[in-house]
Amino acid sequence: MGRGRRSALAAAVTVVCAVTVLGASGTAFANAQQPTRRPTPTASASSSSSPSSSPAAPSDDLDKDLEAVRTKLDTLYHDAAVATEAYNAAEEKSKKQSAEIVDLARKIVDGQKKLDRLKDRAGAAARAQYRTGGLPPQAQLLLSDDPQSFLDGAGRVLEGEHAAKGLIQEMTRTQQDLEQYADDANDRWEQLEANRKEKARAKKRIQQRIKEAEKLQAKLEKRQRDRLAQLEKQAAQRAQTAWLDTGILKEVRGKATAAGRKAVKFATAQIGKPYEWGAEGPKTFDCSGLTSQAWAAAGRPIPRTSQEQWKQLRHVDIKDMRPGDLIIYFDDASHVAMYVGDGAIIHAPRPGRTVTLAGAGEMPILGVVRPDTD
Could you confirm whether 162 is annotated as catalytic? Predict the structure, then answer.
């Protein structure tokens, strides 16, 4: 290759070699908050080198270097996905806590109004006693000359005492409720602030990793970028072929339900739309944004993040999966796609890519979950 082209790639490889090279198959994704195993490579750099002991040909050297670049890019996008799921989780918590704060504020307002009404009633009772000369009702009864009035009044005194006691108890409960609402609201504010900080940290990590990946790719010439895309495609094809060679599709014969067909139809309609971290449509999506919106369109709301989808939805064996089911990838449940049948998935891969149809075996499968209740 020419000296200029070689120097451009050398600059990119220098960046790659500054860190430990970790393998990845296809596009890498990862968990939002815990240390995880990096995706294992579907093809090693040595797969394109000559088995001979003689010096490698220039094209072999190019593929070796580009494999290192591909691995580093996968790692960067893996880390961006880590932060994306952290951002999504914090965003969901913030939404929930904000709604709880609004509800508590409403309860505080209503409780204060109720307390004011109770205080008005207590004040009215005090004013009535003042108008009768300040004598307690019991003393007024003893001074009465009318036996019937005495009897009638005795009943009213008992009723009044009961009402007064009830009024005091209700005022006390209302005051206690207001104090509890205020404490709860303060707790929610603290949690909301913590989640806002987590979102900010996640956003920063996402932007840093994407910027690093873009900078690395910018060092490549067009011919090198084209060859890198070929290597990525070949690695994905090898992984899919290896998965199919297990004979798994001979066992997968499940049929989609009505809700599953709606979810698949929604996902299919999004093909070609750009990936964007944190996005839930309608113009852009990230991986879990696509699957959660697809099932929402099918009338079955599911958790927002891939980790929560893995935790909360019903697990099924791969051999029992059917169109509409979700395939969760990597040990950390960091990526999710929708199975659409015939060994294929629809997913939003990573920054710089679009929602696409791909092979279900192109990434390491953790398991399958079923949003459908049928």
Answer: no
Task: Determine which one of 17, 162, 287, 315 is catalytic.
Answer: 287
The predicted pLDDT at position 161 comes to: 57
Beta strands in the chain (DSSP E): 314-316, 326-329, 335-341, 344-347, 356-359, 365-370
Q: How confident is the model at residue 112, as a pLDDT? A: 81
Apex 305 CA angle, 236 and 205, nearest 5: 75
Residue 274, classed as helix, strand or coil, is strand
Instruction: Give residue 302's identity as a one-letter amino acid code.
Output: I
Measured distance CA(178)–CA(170) in Å, rounded: 12
Q: Can you tell me whether residue 354 is helix, strand or coil?
A: strand
In sign, the C-alpha dihedral spanning 358, 361, 367, 370 is: positive
Is this structure's pTM higher than 0.90? no
The number of C-alpha atoms within 13 Å of 277 and in the hemisphere containing its C-beta is 28
Q: Is the separation of the CB atoms in 280 and 292 below 8 Å?
A: yes
Q: Is 335 a catalytic residue?
A: yes
